Amino acid sequence: AHLPEHIRAKVHNHPCFSEDAHHHYARMHVAVAPACNIQCHYCNRKYDCSNESRPGVVSELLTPEQAMAKTLAVAAEIPQMTVLGIAGPGDPLANPERTLATFRELSAKAPDIKLCVSTNGLALPELVDEICQHNIDHVTITINCVDPEIGAKIYPWIFWNNRRVRGVKAARILIEQQQKGLEMLTERGVLVKVNSVLIPGVNDEHLKEVSRVVKAKGAFLHNVMPLIAEPEHGTFYGLMGQRGPSNDELQALQDECAGDMAMMRHCRQCRADAVGMLGEDRGAEFTNEKVAAMD
Ligand code: SF4
Ligand code: SF4
Predict the structure, then answer these.
(1) 223-256: per-residue pLDDT in tens?
(2) Helices (H) and strands (E) in the chain, counts
(3) To test the ligand 1 pocket, which listed residue (40, 93, 99, 225) has its Cβ within 8 A of the most ligand atoms?
(4) Could you tell me the superkingdom of the organism this chain comes from (predicted)?
């Protein structure tokens, strides 16, 4: 990714954003957030959220206390661990108590670890100020569209003000919240990465427009991820028969968007409980049971 100098300085020890750093620094995710406030057609609720993670894997759910214990255990074992993210297994901001409690604890007890969070954006504007009180390095928003007509094909409903809202109306609210959250974060100087799930025939043509819009609003990195439609992971909510993109299609789109902004090409869609260097997952060494036994 060709990042501007001032951003490069901020992310030099972040394994996800610096090609260099990903050989030297490690990251971990803690899965503290089970609930979600929207429905994506491509989501299978049994598995991790695709805001950030590879869908089709199940992460062990942690309480904020367990997340804290796990983080300290990992930090003792893997000193290169610089970044901790909350990426699911649902939407972290649809579980504000659990996510914020985890951030509070970590900023107090492990102030050197940078924090990040990924979200679909629906609850972002109301939580921006609180998130920014912690040691937040960056926020990832999954933005699959900026057009509600396309959004209605991706999101059957959202849960908004205690009611289920459907169709174009729902997509319009979600898009407005995402864009507002993005603007609020960049105004406050927080780095924002945008993830988009490439869904052939649904938003493939449209993602260039998404890239243009989010760049104009200050997002520093766009990460186009392939829809992973693997039948062995169960029936997707509403995308029966929907295929994922080929490698060529993914790369072609990344190239087209690259004219507009820095593209991320080495995201591994790590599990919501991944631990270690990118491309490696030592999560199995730090299960609740094992961490409890370490005390
Ligand atoms: Fe599933 Fe979408 Fe919610 Fe993530 S944001 S848990 S993919 S419905
Ligand atoms: Fe980094 Fe992508 Fe893995 Fe998140 S999912 S930790 S951005 S490589």
Answers:
(1) 999 887 765 554 455 566 778 888 999 999 888 8
(2) 9, 10
(3) 40
(4) Bacteria
